[in-house]
Design a protein that fits this description.
This protein is an alpha/beta fold and 410 residues long. 24% of the residues lie in helices and 32% in strands. The strands form 4 sheets. It has a 6-stranded mixed sheet, with helices on both faces. Strands 11-17-16-13-14 form a 5-stranded mixed sheet. Helix 3 crosses helix 4 and helix 5 packs parallel to helix 6. The termini are far apart.
């Protein structure tokens, strides 16, 4: 087995709240204090906090690791440690070979230099000869789509232009390891797709990739494993399981203990009856929900809602009045069991199902469960969209014309 190209071994990193050095008078006491604390990295002062706590992972050539987690979880700090912008307080991190990195918009760019000059500057930082950069320059400019502005100072660039140029440089200067942060989100959809395709190419060519993103679909498509982090490691392993755990942590069960109606639910495959988490488009599913009221509820409506977990996009919202269900009310203490049978005609991605019970007379939600079920749709044909339209393609052969010996067509 190949040696790891990216190594992150039991790394700890701490920061101080409000640490600023606006003058030499502020800086000297801070430096002296730091020297006195050297060697006591386990201890925290009142102003300090751990941004990363005992995190470990490895990425081998030809592998991709996705790092996911909420804002402030330590994702960007992890990448800055890998690229040596920061140093760990404990543990060690190492990247073998040439690093292509994009961890902040315009990170490493000199604002007063043009786009072209910054390409050469980044190439020099990566240890490339000028001739190598010249050979790749046209590809970088074309990929970034900044041809008209390549000789404009980058301080005049928009955030999207900065991100496109930064990724183009990172991805075209033959890195052994590609380290990419969420900054790709500032680009348009077409550019994001090109970036993901480019990362697939590098993966096939044997580069190691560390990819931080809130775009769980891109992580799911590209990455062999996932690190779910919230300062410390919450999960490290197969991508589908890691994403599922992360989505569950985001969609905190919204059901107060004092709610008038409590709800329990299970999402299953309608054919086998087994729990359904990873499904294919068109799979028949069932959400079995049990509602129990603490008091009598007369006139109510039950909601069945499906959302895409990556962006909370509403996929479906169905309302089912008690009268439509053949019910006159929900007596206190008597469970109501509803089966929502549906077909997953949705494209690839992560989705969650919610269910709510709304009382019409009081105009209040008496019970809600979010998520009532989670599912990952494993589908490879589409880049975007929600609905699976079952599109098929056929090729019609046009009638062929024949040519006579005289050269006329018949």
């Amino acid at each position: 087995m190949a040696e790891p190209a990216v190594l992150f071994d039991a790394v700890w990193k701490k920061f101080r709240r409000g640490e600023r050095h606006d003058s030499l008078r502020d800086l000297i006491p801070s430096v002296l204090s730091g020297l006195m604390r050297r060697g006591r990295t386990v201890e925290l002062t009142k102003e300090e906090f751990w941004a990363i706590e005992n995190v470990s992972f490895e990425v081998r050539p030809g592998e991709a690791l996705g790092i996911i987690g909420p804002n402030g979880a330590g994702k960007s700090t992890t990448l800055k440690l890998l690229t040596r912008i920061l140093r760990p307080n404990r543990g060690r991190c190492h990247v073998t070979g040439r690093i292509g990195a994009l961890i902040e918009v315009a990170a490493g760019f000199h604002p007063d230099l043009t786009g072209r000059e910054n390409v050469f500057l980044q190439g020099a930082i990566m240890g490339m000869k000028r001739a190598e950069v010249v050979r790749k320059l046209d590809q970088i400019v074309e990929f970034a789509g900044v041809g008209e502005f390549i000789d404009t100072q980058v301080k005049r660039y928009s955030s999207g232009m900065n991100a496109r140029l930064g990724f183009a440089i990172a991805a075209h200067l033959d890195p052994d390891a590609l380290i990419i942060d969420e900054v790709l989100s500032v680009g348009d959809l077409a550019f994001q797709q090109r970036c993901v395709q480019r990362m697939f190419e590098f993966k096939r060519q044997g580069a190691a990739i560390v990819f931080v993103s809130h775009n769980l679909q891109a992580v799911s498509d590209l990455c062999d494993q996932v690190l779910f982090i919230k300062r410390s490691t919450q999960f490290l392993g197969p991508t589908a399981e890691g994403i599922s755990r992360y989505v569950r942590s985001l969609a905190v069960t919204q059901q107060p203990g004092n709610a008038p109606v409590t709800i329990e639910a299970e999402l299953t495959d309608r054919r086998t009856g087994k729990p359904a988490e990873v499904v294919v488009p068109g799979q028949a599913l069932r959400l079995r929900a049990v509602y129990q009221a603490a008091r009598n509820v007369q006139d109510f409506v039950v909601s069945f809602i499906v959302k895409r977990s990556t962006d909370e996009l509403l996929v479906y919202d169905g309302q089912f009045p008690a009268s439509e269900l053949g019910l006159t009310g929900l007596p206190a203490g008597q469970p109501l069991v509803l089966n929502f049978d549906f077909v997953a005609n949705i494209t690839r991605g992560q989705y969650h199902v919610d269910t709510l019970l709304f009382e019409l007379s009081s105009q209040q939600f008496l019970g809600w469960l979010s998520p009532a079920g989670l599912l990952t749709v494993d589908e490879r044909r589409t880049w975007g969209g929600v609905a699976d339209l079952e599109v098929g393609t056929t090729v019609d052969e046009l009638p062929r014309t024949s040519v006579t010996s005289s050269g006329t067509r018949q």
